Amino acid sequence: MSRAGQAIKRLVDVLMAGVALVLLSPVFLVLAVLIRLGSPGPAIFRQERAGRDGRPFTMYKFRSMRSEADAFGPSPSSAADPRLTRLGRWLRETSLDELPQLWNILKGDMSLVGPRPLYMSQAEAFTPRQRRRLEVRPGIFGLAQVQGRGELPHEEKLELDVQYVERMSLAQDLRILWCGLRMSVRRQKVYQKWK
Fold first, then answer.
1. Contact 34/87 with Cβ under 8 angstroms?
2. What is the distance between the alpha carbons of residues 36 and 167, in angstroms, rounded to a whole number?
3. Is the dihedral of CA 68, 190, 104, 167 positive or negative?
């Protein structure tokens, strides 16, 4: 993507995240209260993830698991995962748990579209090709998510992330954003269907 394209992408990120934060502030408040009422612990989950060029940043999410769950354990692979709270299961399926990442976008840590941010330990284990996914800001929605979301094996997700970087364009971002929003509303392909 050209420098002009990158500047437009960043401008769109800031404008859309800013407007969404204002419009969705009542939703944030309601979800935060429901999370606190549903299980003990903070409403917002914070965790260090690998950002652009592998730099660490603090990612925000609405907490979907019980506070005593291993923060660095695997992501829930089924709706029956006992670590998920009842509300947390619904938050994950609708991707509403990702809403606090709009703050990450405004801060410049993330983008609306890009590879999902992974643990620092995962980034350290990347092959040279897989490290290409770190050339861009991580995103709320990514090519791997719209191609299969939770149903894809980890290695396949990483390859799709690299393909996103290699073919990055504003048109591709719009397609991914549209497909990602549609899949979230329909609650599609959230959990694994492979072993």
1. yes
2. 42
3. positive
